[in-house]
Write a sequence for this structure.
């Protein structure tokens, strides 16, 4: 068997990608990484993936899983991300691999992290190891779209999630919106909450829906909950502030009176109500919290992804300012006839200004359909 054929490379890289995915929800802000080691005669002899933030990298687990060290001779290592070259929380993987009697390292994509970014590949090549880059690159990039975005732009990847009726309404005339979609779609959203670093809502949604934004119906870790409250006036009794829930709720405000200390009387009351919050003071632009600054600060705090769950005003502002990366739009086979129309108002009046999503796909979820697309 020709162990280096394109077909084999893709086969083993797919295994490594499937392994990487097992780290979903547990490794952020670091990437999901998987690694498979294939011996000279074409057998898989080792595998591993990055399991938890701050712990051993995928390559280390894969090498540790090898039973017979002799099988490493002239072996091929498949890894979904360029092996690291820096001393971080763990020693550099490229250096570790370069000391093994392996022949080839096949990498799906270069690491966008500035402390690696090609240096891992260079180190392997300088030590006589063949390196092939780009096998299943698109899939690897998709898997780590949050990590790549955060490393490249320093701010989180932003997804806008919307549920609407088939006639385009996001709420009834009386403002009620629970529930437009079916339970399968709602379960999917809870799964996403467990996978995104943070969930964000605007002030009106917090007031009208009083959401908890917690993960239910599925198991998984809780995301950070973020609410924009420019004037810093939301009632302290809202679920976001008062539920006995350990995950922090972050309030983004322009109000200069707000502060993160006990000198802030509102925060003091909220803390008595079990609030484990954080207040981030930002600039005011056109009467609203400076969203660009908000995401920069969140990025600096290690938040790589944000799921925006409403409402219309916040969503429109984000789309207008070009900050939304992905749209997840659920469309239910239901009609509301009159109500709040269109999940965003982005001021497009002419056909020639029409906005078209990229890489769009349609998926059936229960009785709803889900449109996924990129801005
Ligand atoms: C991971 N897991 O399997 C690989 C990573 O903070 P450290 O020391 O864990 O290093 C994190 C960086 O290492 C990460 O941003 C990425 O550039 C590189 N590769 N990271 O957490 C892994 N292979
Ligand atoms: Zn590493």
């Amino acid at each position: 068997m020709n162990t280096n054929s394109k077909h084999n490379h893709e086969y083993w890289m797919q295994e490594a990608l499937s392994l990487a995915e097992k780290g979903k929800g547990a490794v952020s802000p670091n990437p999901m990484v998987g690694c498979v080691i294939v011996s000279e005669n074409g057998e898989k002899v080792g595998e591993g993936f990055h399991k938890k933030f701050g712990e051993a990298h995928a390559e280390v687990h894969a090498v540790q899983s090898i039973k017979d060290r002799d099988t490493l001779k002239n072996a091929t290592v498949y890894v979904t991300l360029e092996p690291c070259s820096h001393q971080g929380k763990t020693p550099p993987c490229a250096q570790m691999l370069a000391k093994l009697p392996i022949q080839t390292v096949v990498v799906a994509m270069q690491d966008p992290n500035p402390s690696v970014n090609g240096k891992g590949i260079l180190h392997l090549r300088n030590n006589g190891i063949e390196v092939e880059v780009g096998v299943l690159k698109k899939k690897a990039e998709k898997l780590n779209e949050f990590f790549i975005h955060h490393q490249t732009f320093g701010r989180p990847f932003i997804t806008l999630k919307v549920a609407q009726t088939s006639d385009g309404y996001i709420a009834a005339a009386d403002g009620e919106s629970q529930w437009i979609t079916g339970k399968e779609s709602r379960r999917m959203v809870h799964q996403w909450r467990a996978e995104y670093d943070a969930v964000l809502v605007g002030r009106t949604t917090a007031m009208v829906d009083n959401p908890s934004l917690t993960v239910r119906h599925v198991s998984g870790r809780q995301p950070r909950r973020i609410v924009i409250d420019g004037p810093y006036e939301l009632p302290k009794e809202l679920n976001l502030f008062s539920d006995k829930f350990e995950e922090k709720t972050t309030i983004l405000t322009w109000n200069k009176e707000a502060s993160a200390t006990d000198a802030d009387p509102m925060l003091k009351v909220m803390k008595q109500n079990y609030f484990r919050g954080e207040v981030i003071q930002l600039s005011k632009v056109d009467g609203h919290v400076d969203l660009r600054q908000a995401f920069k600060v969140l990025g600096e705090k290690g938040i790589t992804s944000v799921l925006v769950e409403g409402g219309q005003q916040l969503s429109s502002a984000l789309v207008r300012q070009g900050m939304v990366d992905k749209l997840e739009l659920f469309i239910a086979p239901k009609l509301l006839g009159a109500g709040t129309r269109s999940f965003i108002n982005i001021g497009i009046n002419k056909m020639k200004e029409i906005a078209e999503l990229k890489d769009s796909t349609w998926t059936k979820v229960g009785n709803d359909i889900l449109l996924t697309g990129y801005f």
